[in-house]
Amino acid sequence: MWQSVGLTLLVIVATLVCALLFMLFGWYVVWQLFLSKFKFLRELVGDAGTPQAETQPSETKSERTASVPTRNRPRTARQRVASPDSTL
């Protein structure tokens, strides 16, 4: 009789452990493939690692406008006069 009670408890505990391991593995896979991309969720979990896109410094607006080729931007009168490459 005690053997059947012990066996029943062992089966229940083993089932709970297997279910917990399956849930943890599923969470890990979903985190790696999808959820880690959201900054809000990373902050909630307290994840110190950041994706590749955030480790690179972001451009400020002035840097983005400075990288635009000058031929595409309209020149002011002062820039047209002071420009050394003009062919006047």
UniProtKB/TrEMBL annotation:
The keyword Membrane applies. The chain crosses the membrane at residues 6-30. Residues 52-70 have a biased composition (Polar residues). Keywords: Membrane, Transmembrane, Transmembrane helix. InterPro entries: DUF4750. It comes from the Eukaryota. Residues 49-88 are annotated as: Disordered. This is Small integral membrane protein 13.
